DNA sequence: AGCAGCATGTAAGTGGTTACATGATTGT
DNA sequence: ACAATCATGTAACCACTTACATGCTGCT
């Protein structure tokens, strides 16, 4: 399966919740899939045009001429189901933080500690964000929310893992390396 | 900083451990950075050519004419240090597994359970691999190995998190959804 | 002689970002 | 009037993968 198809999944998935403009599709993806997916306008508009060409979406009547509200068609729902069913090929991992840390001996004193402190902060911020999202979606026990909760739980697990890892590594760093990040602990 | 620079980091980092051919650079990256980095030949050879042009690497004498062994120059070491010091911009996340799971209600019965079972297996396999790598590098307390151990620990933490998450989600799935993955537990 | 693995490289295509250009709508 | 934001789209560029083409080396 071409990776391009994944953008179609995101767009069709967003439209499966209701008619939207391209602009709103992007916002919807950012709000609901934000911590594990992302699309830029440069992807969304051409994808919407291709999906319309293929009959998977169609313009819906809207009050203003300056915007095009798209709705998913029956063919589009089928297409979404088909795309979702295709096997999932994960692209090779690329983690810039680990790439830098791996060559930590080539870095100036304190730089590895700074990298780890950044990772710690990122994880903390992510956990705060997830807590807010959890608050928003509690009380809803629809099937959709069950899956949404699973993806949220993934983010939480990984963020907690990163947080624990960063703290362990900071604690294990020799004092000489910790100078750049200031006093810690 | 252009993302291209990260390939340079990987290549220069590999060469910082000793002279190598492009083929060997790729193998070295795959072996030591494998769980968080990857380069294809289509990236490595042009990058080596560009680095040679820039004076960061140079061909070293080798027995055979059919291969070019590169070694890092003093300029190359400087360049590596400079590249490593540049701020790290993480590209937007894209997790195909979560994208599929999020739209789980559009999937046939059992498909979400299959996705989770796959994730569980992946994490188990990763942990087995990491255990082997740990065995290989224990007993070496050089600074290089300290950083290598940190990147390994990251992989372990994240894999354990994914494993726990997948099992929790599988346990939480209603029975009707578990059929496709067979009896579990 | 033949095969597996070493080794180098290029071309085509994909997926994606970024920056730019443009204009409508809404709120103050 | 002005600013912010909604809204659409394109062009240029970048990073990367994949497939292909080619040949060498070492082993059996």
Task: Give a quick rundown of the structure.
The structure is a homodimer of 185-residue chains. Chain A has 185 residues and is mainly alpha-helical. The first copy, chain A, has helices spanning 4-15, 22-32, 41-53, 74-85, 96-102, 111-137, 143-172, 175-178, and strands at 57-60, 69-72.
What is the strand tally of chain A?
2
Q: List SSEs of chain A in N-to-C order.
A: HHHEEHHHHH
Structural class of chain A: mainly alpha
Total domain units of chain A: 2
Major beta-sheet overview of chain A = 2 strands, antiparallel
Rounded to the nearest angstrom, the radius of gyration of chain A is 21 Å
Strand content of chain A: under 5%
With strands numbered from the N-terminus, the spatial order across the biggest sheet of chain A is 1-2
Residues in helix, % of chain A: 55-70%
Looking at how many chains there are and whether they match, the oligomeric state comes to homodimer
Straight-line distance between termini of chain A: 48 Å
Largest interface: chains, residues each? A-B, 60 and 60 residues
How confident overall, as mean pLDDT of chain A? Answer: 90
Number of helices of chain A: 8
Shape of chain A: elongated
**Which blocks of ≥5 consecutive residues of chain A have pLDDT under 50?**
177-185
């Amino acid at each position: 399966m071409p990776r391009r198809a994944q953008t179609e999944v995101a767009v069709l998935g967003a439209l499966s919740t209701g008619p939207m403009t391209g602009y709103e599709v992007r916002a919807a993806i950012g709000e609901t899939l934000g911590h594990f997916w992302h699309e830029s306008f440069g992807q969304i508009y051409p994808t919407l045009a291709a999906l319309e060409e293929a009959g998977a979406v169609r313009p819906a009547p809207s009050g203003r001429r300056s915007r095009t509200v798209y709705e998913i068609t029956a063919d589009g729902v089928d297409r979404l189901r088909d795309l979702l069913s295709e096997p999932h090929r994960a692209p090779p991992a690329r983690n810039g933080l680990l790439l830098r840390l791996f060559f930590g001996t080539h870095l100036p004193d304190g730089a590895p500690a700074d990298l780890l402190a950044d990772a710690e902060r990122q994880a903390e911020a992510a956990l705060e964000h997830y807590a807010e999202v959890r608050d928003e979606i509690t009380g809803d026990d629809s099937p959709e929310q069950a899956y949404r909760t699973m993806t949220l739980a993934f983010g939480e697990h990984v963020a907690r893992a990163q947080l624990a890892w960063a703290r362990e590594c900071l604690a294990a760093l020799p004092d000489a390396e910790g100078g750049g990040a200031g006093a810690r602990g």
